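Weekly structure sync - notes
Attendees: PM, LS, DV (DV joined late)
Agenda: review two folding runs queued last week.

Item 1: First target. Sequence and structure tokens pasted below for the record.
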Amino acid sequence: MRLIRLLTPLLVVLLVATTVPAQAATPEQRHANVAHRATNAERDQRDLVDLRKHKCLQRFAVKQAKRMAAQRRMFHQDLSPVLRRCGMSMVGENVAYGFPNGRAVVRGWMNSEGHRANILQRRYRLMGIGARRGGGQWYVAQVFGVR
């Protein structure tokens, strides 16, 4: 009985903590998360390892997506700082604009030889992806890496 009285407050705290909804993802996060899952689905179909999220690569991807959206044009970034600051031995990047969602952007990349090669590069293990809107269009940057 004494044990029940001690555990009851703990159970109440656990129940309250597990029923509080998580902060909703932003449209940008949803777009990027869907693209990440779609990228790994393409790799899974070919028995390649899933790409794990990497904070440093993520920062560079988001920064690039923001720059492209602000300038309303698509362009690649210099990847030398990514190599150095993220401690990678090899990096790559896909950029795109105008696709309505994360699945569509990955389909677009898969229909392009160079972009598909990045997605299916066997050596890559890590990825960051950022999506931002500018001028009514989505701009997306996907940065790959391997240590």
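Item 2: Second target, run right after the first with the same settings.
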Amino acid sequence: MQPGELAMASKARPGDRVAVLSPSFAAPAVAPQLHEQAIRRLAAVTGLVPVEFPTTRELGASAEARAADINAAFADPSIRAVIATIGGDDQVTVIPHVDPDVVAADPKPFVGYSDNTHLHNFLWQLGVQSFYGGSTQVHLGPGPRVDEVHAASLRAALLDGGRLELHDPGESEDFGVEWTDERALHEFGSREATKPWTWSGPSSKVEGRSWGGCLEVIDQIAMAGRMPSVERLEGSVLLIETSEEIPTAVQVGRWMRSLGERGFLGAASGVLVARPPVSERGKVPGARQRDQLRGEQREAVLEQMARYNPSAVVCVGVPFGHTRPQWIVPHGGLICLDGADRVISVEYS
């Protein structure tokens, strides 16, 4: 199956049920009040009816049990969409227990990011599109409200479809208030003004079906032998982002170089690179150093793209990764990068 043949799951409708799963870390068990606020907001923003499964709030659930919840959600005809509560670090152990026949029999919009790159790749290999970004615990529950760009792209992913033009929300936070702090229910984290996205490559327009996710997870996918073929990625738009573990520019460069040696960078028509987090709770560099760290990661990516595919259109700084506000973007759906007008438009239908 070629990327152009990926199937789009049917959209949900207000009143339908949406599965809320913890395929990696069961964050709701740590901060149940925040989770419950997220569930209320998910219903309010989408009109869907959230449904939890046995391991949604179960810390330490086995890989088999978490996979059973994924299988059950896709097998249940009354469930019309699936969203992850958060990422984690061991979903690589869950994927072998997910039933491809069950998932492929009734494709549903899936929303998640970070460690959920594993499940996105699993769906992509089955020929099913999904949506990269989104979590109940980080993007719906905390703060005084749901960010506008997040709400708009969540509705587009699950309900409305259509085409959206991505824009910079103008502010960003690397992390929010500690979940167990009551202020997390009504305060954002420390936000700063953003700077314009960086464009590289030719001044041309490219469009392709997206594949990718969190670099740290792509590394695990490769080690587990679950990468797609280079041939299936010809003409694609790669999605690249890094996690709150804040890898160095050297590490990012090595991952990109490995993707280049494998042929993935050369196969892409375009690359979308997320704004990286560069600070964490208890360790916030000064503003100048934060800019420097982001710049170093940016240059590490651009250096490898210039080496392996200078004809690709690249945009760096788009908030679809581990920062907030966050756009949800298609994984396996069409993304258009216009290097001349510097416009990104994405297809949710």
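Discussion on item 2: The mean pLDDT is 97.
Action: LS to circulate a short write-up before next sync.
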